[in-house]
Amino acid sequence: MRVEEVLLRIRRLRRADAPADPELAPGLVHLDDAAVTTVASAGRLLADVPAEKLASPNFPLRPLRVAVTGTFTPGTVEPLLRVALLRIGIAAEIHVSGFDQVVLDLSDPGSALAEFRPDVTLCLLHDGWFLPAEWDPGDLDGLADALGQRAAVLEAAVRGYASRSDGALLLHTVPLSPLEHRSLVSFRGRAALGRVWRELNCRLLELGERDTMYTLDLETLLVDHDGPVRDERLYRFASMAWTPTVERRYAHEAAAFCRAVLGRTAKVLALDLDNTLWAGVLGDDGLAGIMLGTDYPGNCHRDVQRRALALRRQGVLLAVCSKNDPDLVTEAFAQHPDLLLRADDFVAQAVNWGRKDDNLRQLASTLNLGLDAVVFADDSQFECELVRHELPAVRVVELAGDPAGFSNRLLAEGHFTVLATGATDRERTELYRARSGRERFAATFDSAADYLHELKLRVTVRPVDDLSLPRVAQLGLRTNQFTMTERAHTEAQTRQRAASPDHLVLTVEVTDRFGAEGLVGGVWLDRRDPAAWVIENFVLSCRVFSRGVEQAALHRVAELAGATGATRLEALFRPTTRNKPGGSVWPATGFTVASEQDGTIRHVLPLHPPPRLLPAWIALEEGDVRA
Q1: Does pTM top 0.85 for this prediction?
Q2: 355 lies in which domain range?
Q3: What are the strands of the beta sheet with 346-352, ordered from one edge?
Q4: Does the residue 627 lie in any domain?
Q5: How far apart are the C-alpha atoms of 203 and 155, rounded to whole Å?
Q6: Is 552 a domain residue?
Q7: Does residue 46 share a domain with residue 133?
Q8: What 3 state SS string does 564-603 have?
Q9: Above 80 in pLDDT, residue 425?
């Protein structure tokens, strides 16, 4: 799809009688190499296109409310952000504040931004807001004090806003204009100014470590930016502190942050082998002929492996998708001395001569994940175009051209960006490997009941704590099969409910003979009505499907509710295109439909007599829950 065709299709969609164009949103990737003015024009045109004209079952669009405020005029941030979000499957409603409204927006509970109730708030900052109008180059201690005072004003506004908001807030580090640097004539003075400025940026980075607040290290991301951060004429004339190309870079990073907030981060990296993980073709060049050493181009491919290994250590699952001889590949992973990745770093391998789109479907099915959780990296333009056409939900990284740029291309889109990582993420490959052991163990039994009894399952249900809260919130956002709603609770909303006496958030952990599965589920409860506890959401990882874990968790919830005098449990379910496994739990555990309104089905389960939901093969270990 050419750039001109993309713009033409957008213009057509703006007509009231225009039919839907479900290929357009994923087709926005074809604007990646277009001029920034072209992308901004596309974003302005798309503002008038309803999301339902762009969505499709293969490329669903998630709604998100995004607010933009800052210390300067944001220029083209809004249209660039709209394109960046749509191309990754997010249909955003965007609120943009006026010039230098950030402190007022965040401090006033009645501001237009606060009343917009954004899911994500983006705060744009520039050096001129922090610097005094007149500062003495000979008094850098005084400058440090002035910067600290301005930072304190921003910090107070940000903290107050975060305490009232249930959304996420994104700050960023601030580049210092070279004009300020050059205003000092001594090398030592310039170095001291750099130190003072970096202390300010360190303070902004520390703010991002607090609940619901995050900081983008924009100063680092602009190191390889081609051109100045600001156009002096636009800055003096219109208070625009960023050039359009910087705005484009920021919009790209902010979109990745929004995707992480929604929990739509990719979970699997499926890698080609020949001319991707190594230079050369294994079948033609042989084991000794592929290049992976310290010289070009082998060192480029070795660096791709280094980046993939780093992703694996942070929870990304690695898989192989290669047209190759499986015996040769097994030999390569076992014997090549320069390979950083080995066979046990991968949770699955599709090494055959079949179509790669079919292999990716099978990989996703094997891992029990959706295709939208998969990133496919390959050097072949043909294979990449095939997957883009046949599997639009799969994120494709084309590693074409000079291999020196492969690592940057693999990571540039932020496909794997999450809000935070924990122990469970770092152990994810081992968890999936243990799952393979369970499957082999299950194959030795004639009946599922015998297998489950011998699995020796132990389920623990306990209240969320400071350590588990980010993990259960992330699980809720990332789960799209066993979940009761498309709009899961954010980390801020989960934190608010965990602290409220009217709510209860529970975690579900599972252990069996193969080891700990870790935190695999969460239950969000509204208990404002003493007679009826309401399950707002219940999520469960696909790793523990079909073992009765959901019944065990609901058994514990029923016990807790009954102990407080509640007479019934109610459960809300809002069907989506993916959450049929979640909805099936209610009739299976004795809940009946009580009502249906605005797309939400309310189920009810009487608590007298107490329901017995615990499977015989599960030992329920009670956490310390104060009802």
Answers
A1: yes
A2: 268-412
A3: 346-352, 317-323, 268-271, 374-378, 395-398
A4: no
A5: 9
A6: yes
A7: no
A8: CCCCEEEEEECCCCCCHHHHCHHHHCCCEEEEEECCEEEE
A9: no
